[in-house]
Write a structure and sequence with these properties.
Helix content: 40-55%
Number of strands: 11
Order of helices and strands: EEEHEHEHEHHHHHHHHEHEHEEE
Distance between the termini: 24 Å
Largest sheet: 7 strands, mixed
Radius of gyration: 20 Å
Shape: globular
Number of helices: 13
Strand content: 5-15%
Mean pLDDT: 96
């Protein structure tokens, strides 16, 4: 079979950052989003998810194809991305977290985004360490702060080591209930509105998702709780995905749906369950060009939106 390459771009927040309540949030400004789409339209053939799925059924993709994907199901998808995509006759594939539309609760991952947008990172790191030390050895047992810092405080291409340390503590390293406690305490201290208020402002609701789908957008699954699925036990993964599929039932075909792994986290058990439950395609966060003839179709790599102009030309690099 002839090699078939596919560029996949990953988006999260797309908004008018300067005039938003939280300009420090890590997102793509709306003007840059428009310019980026114009660049992509001039240099790629932007394809739909259906075209990619059809490829695996024996179809063909155009030369230099690119797929647009959006993670988490934020209101920006509806208020900003949808009209811009419609104006350009493009499809986006949107991956929704089940809990956000079913329970209207603010997820820890989003508490953390807004805390980071509002707080000085050195003060925030000191707060996290202080709360870790306060709770250690009571209800919660976990390694020393120095040991955890040594293990997790490793900078990546987007964040310094202090930011990565705070993220990992509140995303995965600490016990789940303690993460909930600390993130809520810090949210109350730094963000300035209630968690309930932000939850209702931040996420799509079912009516909006339905309108997006009716306007040609593709809807996929991004788990229920937004766990690091590769870090939890097999039965918990199964329960999470079962709940996610039940909530997303009206938007997907349960016998043929697309999975997007939160944080790009998976293991063999996760892949087994995803496949068993009917997923026909999966998206990871590995950064490189996808080769559809060689890559596991449940683990397609993606570039970040910051890897394309006008932000950068990293999409050209050999990662």
């Amino acid at each position: 079979m002839e090699n078939q390459k596919l560029y996949i771009s990953m988006y999260h927040y797309t908004r008018d950052l300067l005039h938003s309540r939280y300009p420090g949030i890590k997102g793509l400004d709306v003007d840059i989003f428009k310019r980026q789409l114009d660049f992509m339209m001039a240099n790629f053939n932007i394809v739909t998810m259906e075209q990619v799925l059809d490829y695996y059924a024996g179809g063909k993709l155009p030369e230099n194809p690119l797929l647009l994907t959006f993670d988490d199901g934020y209101i920006d998808n509806y208020t900003v991305a949808l009209p811009i995509l419609k104006e350009r006759h493009l499809q986006g594939s949107f991956f929704i977290i089940g809990k956000t539309i079913n329970e209207h609760q603010l997820l820890d991952v989003n508490k953390l985004h807004y805390i980071l947008a509002c707080a000085d990172i050195m003060k925030l790191m000191a707060d996290v360490k202080e709360q870790m030390d306060r709770h250690r050895g009571t209800e919660f047992v976990f390694p020393s702060t120095d040991e955890l810092y040594e293990k997790y405080a490793v900078a990546n291409r987007f964040d310094n080591k202090e930011t990565i340390f705070v993220k990992r503590m509140l995303q995965t390293a600490l016990p789940e209930r303690l993460r909930n406690i600390i993130s809520s305490n810090l949210f109350s201290k730094y963000v300035g509105i209630t968690e309930e208020q932000l939850a209702y402002e931040l996420y799509l609701n079912k009516d909006q998702i339905k309108l997006m789908q009716d306007n040609g957008m593709f809807i996929g699954v991004h788990s229920y709780e937004h766990y690091w699925l590769g870090n939890i036990d097999k039965e918990k993964v199964r329960q999470d995905l079962t709940k996610a599929l039940d909530v997303m039932d009206e938007f997907i075909d349960k016998s043929s749906w697309v999975m997007n792994y939160p944080y790009g986290s998976y293991n063999d058990d996760v892949l087994e369950i995803v496949k068993e439950k009917g997923a026909v395609l999966g998206l990871s966060t590995e950064v490189r060009l996808a080769d559809l003839t060689k890559d596991n179709k449940l683990l397609l790599p993606r570039f970040d939106c910051n890897d394309f102009p006008p932000k950068s030309e990293k999409f050209k690099e050999d990662f």
